[in-house]
Amino acid sequence: MNLLLWALEKLGRHEVLVDGFGNVLWRRYYLFYFEKTDSPRWLDWLPNVHINIFESADVENEDEHNHPWSTLSVMVKGSYVENINHSKLRETRAPGLAWLSYKDTHRLAKMTAGTTTFFMHGFRRGEWKFHMRPHKAVCDFCMEKNGGKCFKNEEVLNYEQYTKRGDGPQHAFSKIRTVSWERVTPEFRVKLDRRRAALVRMAVSKSELKEVNKTALKKIMFQRFK
Question: How many structural domains is the chain composed of?
Answer without folding.
Answer: 1
